[in-house]
Specification:
3 domains, nine-stranded mixed sheet, alpha/beta, Rossmann fold, globular
Length: about 625
């Protein structure tokens, strides 16, 4: 149970065929007799970007007396199951039924965001009864959404490095879309999903119609295909234009919750709805929600909120069923504002794989990120992700494992999550190994912040233009690439990167070199996985020298992978990283006869941390 002065937030599992994770927002005090089901973008990078903003939407509705249920579609986020259209439509129905049952409200509204709006109306076409329907930026034809995703993939995909062996081919039957696998069956199902085609049997004359509100992606939109499709069904439609849809699909740490859009949704849903009795207020620390994952049911997942200094922290524990977990637990940390599922959802996949093999794990959100409490939408200054209180949050969640018998930890994280893994390994004596994915800093360093800006220019300048200007997709499909912008971005990146590379190394070992080598002597096994061409490489070269000569040590290893980016969008790179994690687990198992390690925070370790090794 997470709470604020205005509302409560409870995690729950629901669903018939597969376990789906939901978060139920309930207002405190005055309440209305309606519950809203918030359907997020159901696939890929859009789902990653929009998550925090939709949590803010749930909070906004609760502030107006409206309960809401956010959930992850099958095969996305923390939910079990597969990416399959019929399963997505069934999930909308199950979410509506769960929301009615959990709240006791007589009226239900559905908010469909992007492609989820298309899926939600398709579910309503199948007979799902709802009272109000909000479609925000929903395409009338899912194939147009698919065409945009493919165009986005073409622009953002890395050009293979001709100086190294080519990457392995994508598995047959799989198409890569921004770090996520799209199966041929799902692509075919989406291509056939067309809201402009409706059978008369779907909407007989005596069927009660919901009222509908459509909200455009931008104020410039002129396409009313969704509104026309609703009117063809005999549904009364209010169509309004707002900017804000693109804001929730920006990079996770830049995505914004558009307050005017959320206020309009809240007012429209509340219009004409009677009051109801206030919801019961549950005390903090309510029971965690448990479920079994997978067809064989060999894995259990536990969603919980636990106390932290900045509010309640959300985490997911994954563990085997029918046996005690191994004494080594895994800790998964994300970069900046990406929630606990990890980049491209890789933490979910690996946690469940290793639970089936006997290992328990924890993946978590720090304060103001994902589903944890905190200020704002996750839009914290970069330096806030490299502060002591972030590491305090991580250690608080790690104690869940300690209380259940964890003797040692393997920690892994990307970007600022890599930094947190490193720092917590210094603070504790029960961290046996860390696997760092593309670290950019080991403490807050303004110069490395400048490097992060170069990374942003390299990776995102062209992407944002595509998201915010739909015409770019059409130009791309016609072969009319934005050449001037491309050349400008490339020139800027090349100039700034060259300036960083030319900077002479400091005299003597830097805090990075000293810190890594002393941590390895502790001993902590350290593996660093870097994407060749990523800014993690010049960061390490600035400290270890160009070429990283003599970097490898007995307990310190570097792994360089070509043809992938900072977040491992290439599927083959994700598998390479999994191989590294498996090897690290095996290495720890080989050392289980080493001396006992104390698992309590604040206990001394075999080697003290250098004074310049802590976050500044």
């Amino acid at each position: 149970m997470s709470s604020s002065k205005a509302h409560d937030l409870t995690a729950l599992w629901f669903g018939d065929g597969a376990s789906l994770l939901g978060h139920l927002h309930t207002p405190r005090g005055a309440a209305l007799d309606i519950v809203a089901v918030i359907c997020p973008p159901p696939f890929g990078y859009e789902n990653i970007c929009a998550h925090r903003a939709l949590r803010v939407l749930g909070d906004s509705l609760a502030a107006g007396g409206i309960a809401s249920l956010r959930f992850d579609f099958p095969g996305t986020g923390d939910s079990d199951g597969e990416n399959e259209l019929s399963a997505w439509k069934a999930a909308v129905k199950s979410a509506v039924e769960t929301a009615r049952r959990k709240t006791g409200c007589n009226r239900v509204g559905v908010i469909g965001v992007g492609l989820a709006g298309t899926v939600a109306l398709a579910s309503v076409d199948m007979g799902l009864a709802v009272d109000k329907l909000v479609l925000w930026g929903a395409p009338a034809r899912a194939r147009s959404w698919l065409r945009q995703q493919r165009a986005y993939q073409r622009v953002t995909a890395l050009k293979p490095d001709p100086t190294v062996p080519p990457p392995p081919p994508t598995p047959e039957g799989i198409e890569e879309l921004s770090g996520f696998p799209l199966t041929v069956p799902l692509a075919e199902q989406l291509s056939a999903l067309d809201l402009t085609r409706v059978a008369s049997t779907d909407w007989p004359l005596d069927r009660v119609r919901p009222s509908a509100l459509t909200i455009s992606r931008t104020t410039r939109d002129t396409d009313d295909a969704v509104g026309s499709a609703l009117r063809d069904r005999g549904i009364t439609v209010e169509a309004e234009k707002y900017d804000g849809f693109d804001q929730i699909l920006d990079e996770p740490h830049l995505a914004k919750a558009p307050a005017p859009v959320f206020a309009r949704m809240r007012a429209w849903l509340a219009d004409g709805v009677a009051e109801r009795a206030p919801y019961a207020v549950s005390p903090p620390g309510a029971a965690a929600a448990r479920t079994r994952i997978g067809r064989q049911g060999q894995v259990e997942e536990i969603a919980r909120y636990s106390p932290g200094d900045g509010g309640l922290l959300f985490s997911i524990e994954t563990r085997p069923i029918g046996r005690e977990p191994e004494p080594t637990w895994l800790i998964f940390l994300t970069g900046r504002a990406v929630r606990h599922v990890g980049p491209n959802r890789i933490w979910v996949r690996f946690a469940r794989e290793q639970a089936a093999a006997g290992y328990a794990s924890l993946r978590l959100d720090g304060r103001s990120v994902g589903d944890s409490e905190g200020e704002g939408n996750g839009l914290m200054p970069n330096e806030e992700y490299y502060q002591e209180h972030i590491y305090d949050d991580v250690e608080r969640v790690m104690e869940i494992g300690v209380a259940q018998g964890a003797k040692r930890f393997l920690m892994t994280g990307i970007c600022s999550g890599a930094t947190a893994s490193y720092q917590v390994a210094w603070r504790r004596s029960d961290v046996a190994a860390i696997v760092l994915l593309n670290p950019l800093q080991l403490r807050h360093d303004p110069e490395d912040d400048d490097r992060a800006k170069v990374q942003m220019a390299r990776s995102w300048a062209l992407r944002k233009g595509l998201w915010t200007n739909p015409r770019s997709y059409l130009r791309l499909l016609k072969g009319e690439l934005p050449t001037k912008r491309m050349l400008k971005a490339i020139f800027s990146v090349a100039t700034l990167s060259a300036a960083f590379r030319r900077k002479p190394a400091n005299n003597g070992p830097s805090y990075v070199v000293t810190g890594f080598h002393q941590l390895a002597k502790k001993p902590v096994e350290i593996d660093i996985f870097v994407s060749e061409g990523d800014l993690s490489v010049p960061f390490l070269e600035r400290h270890f020298g160009v070429g990283l000569i003599n970097f490898e040590r007995e307990h310190l290893r570097l792994h360089r992978v070509h043809n992938t980016d900072h977040t491992l969008r290439a599927l083959f790179a994700q598998e390479r990283f999994f191989e590294l994690l498996r090897a690290s687990l095996a290495r720890i198992a080989d050392r289980q006869d080493a001396r006992p390690r104390v698992a309590a925070k604040g206990h001394s370790s075999s080697t003290a941390s250098p004074s310049d090794n802590t976050p500044s």
